[in-house]
């Protein structure tokens, strides 16, 4: 079957892989800015994600070199030199595509380990198992790529050596079938990394709207699983060596989609501190509130409750540590307190004690008037009745 030299899908491949990598780079840069400038806590998972992105960069670089030599064009339209070089950079790119997705998943798994903390040992052991199993399966896939022709490694991308040098290679079906297994493991890992955060959120006492939002952001691994499933279907083209340079394009497109979705899904959930102004992310705290105590002739002073401690928090720094004794023992420390102390109904509370001193009486006996609670919320008049969340145990 004849084909025109202009029948080339390289431009489509290059456009997709570089646009995806650029988008993921912008998300990761925003992640690093958030962690370094806003949260001021660049953690291990951030460094791992940077490492993963550079493997994605190497994948794109070698794919670009392969396209220069003929990847995307029909194999029979290439001269022998272009055939060998296109295949060479083609196989060189494959390990970096595998490593980019694997390390990106490890970064997100490390984030989840910090969310879960040391309390839930079962979930922690599951995540550690996923890390180890990911490494074993994906590294063994890379090894298999380069040992399929034994010592004659050049025969992988130069089939002529099988005839001229007597090189012996495995059937391409072996790499295809093991690729099915490897991709199935990755898809199952993405599913686990979607379900586990949802299980953690389900056990908390957060509002439904916040649970849904957090669940959506932390559950973006489901998109990576979908991309992995499509990529698994494309693996069948590894065995189609008669037109390898053209048939393999779909596999590389979905490989790039897979690891970039992993990058974006694992990073976008860390950007929450950049959007503190969004009302739905605000927290209703059940901690004892701070208050102001005012006396006649004295300046007002503000005293924060001794049980309150400022927290530094990022979206991926959720932890399962228990609150102070004044809080419910079953509630997890999922969201941080705001800069202001709030009552159970979300209003600021100011406690004012007015003391009247009668100087005509030699026996000093200040008589406090009833405590008056004032709502700082606009449009509300002062009230002498304490709010529902105030139990009176913190009055001084």
TrEMBL record:
Keywords assigned: Membrane, Transmembrane, Transmembrane helix
Entry's localization field: Membrane
Ranges of residues in domain Rhodopsin: 30-276
Chain intervals with Basic and acidic residues compositional bias: 371-380
Keyword set includes rRNA processing: no
GO cellular component annotations of the record: membrane
InterPro entries (UniProt xref): Rhodopsin_dom_fungi, SAT4-like
Biased composition (Polar residues): 290-304
Primary localization class, coarse: membrane
Pfam families in alphabetical order: Fung_rhodopsin
Transmembrane regions listed in the UniProt entry: 13-30, 50-71, 91-113, 125-147, 214-233, 253-275
Segments of this protein annotated with the region Disordered: 290-396
Bilayer disposition of the protein: Multi-pass membrane protein
PANTHER family reported for this sequence: INTEGRAL MEMBRANE PROTEIN, PTH11-LIKE INTEGRAL MEMBRANE PROTEIN (AFU_ORTHOLOGUE AFUA_5G11245)
Family: Belongs to the SAT4 family.
Name under which the protein is recorded: Rhodopsin domain-containing protein
Organism: Viridothelium virens (Speckled blister lichen)
């Amino acid at each position: 079957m004849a084909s025109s030299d202009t029948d080339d899908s390289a431009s489509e491949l290059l456009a997709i892989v570089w646009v995806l990598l650029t988008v993921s780079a912008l998300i990761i840069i925003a992640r690093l800015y958030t962690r370094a400038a806003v949260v001021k806590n660049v953690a291990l998972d951030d460094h791992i994600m940077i490492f993963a992105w550079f493997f994605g960069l190497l994948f794109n670089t070698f794919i670009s070199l392969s396209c220069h030599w003929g990847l995307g064009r029909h194999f029979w339209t290439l001269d022998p030199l272009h055939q060998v070089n296109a295949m060479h950079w083609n196989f060189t790119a494959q390990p970096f595509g595998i490593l980019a997705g694997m390390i990106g998943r490890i970064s997100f798994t490390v984030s989840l380990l910090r969310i879960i903390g040391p309390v839930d040992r079962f979930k922690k052991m599951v995540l550690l198992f996923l890390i180890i199993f990911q490494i074993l399966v994906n590294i063994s896939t890379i090894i298999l790529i380069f040992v399929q022709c034994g010592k004659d490694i050049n025969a992988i991308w130069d089939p002529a050596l099988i005839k001229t040098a007597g090189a012996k290679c495995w059937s391409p079906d072996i790499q295809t079938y093991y690729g099915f297994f490897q991709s199935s493991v990755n898809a199952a890992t993405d599913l686990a990394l979607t379900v586990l955060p949802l299980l953690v959120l389900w056990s908390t006492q957060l509002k439904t709207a916040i649970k849904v939002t957090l669940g959506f952001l932390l559950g973006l691994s489901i998109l990576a699983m979908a991309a992995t499933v499509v990529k698994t279907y494309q693996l069948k083209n590894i065995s189609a060596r008669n037109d390898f340079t053209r048939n393999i394009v779909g596999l590389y497109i979905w490989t790039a989609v897979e690891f970039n979705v992993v990058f974006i899904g694992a990073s976008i959930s860390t950007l929450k501190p950049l959007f503190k102004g969004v009302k739905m992310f605000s927290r209703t705290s059940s901690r004892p509130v701070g208050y102001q105590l005012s006396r006649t002739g004295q300046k007002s002073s503000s005293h924060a409750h001794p049980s309150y401690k400022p927290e530094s928090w990022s979206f991926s720094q959720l932890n399962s540590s228990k609150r102070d004794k004044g809080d419910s023992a079953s509630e997890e420390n999922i969201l941080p307190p705001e800069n202001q102390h709030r009552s159970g109904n979300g209003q600021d509370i100011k406690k004012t004690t007015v003391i009247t001193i009668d100087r005509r009486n030699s026996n000093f006996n200040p008589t406090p008037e009833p405590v008056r609670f004032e709502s700082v919320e606009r449009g509300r008049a002062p009230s002498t009745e304490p709010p529902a969340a105030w139990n009176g145990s913190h009055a001084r």
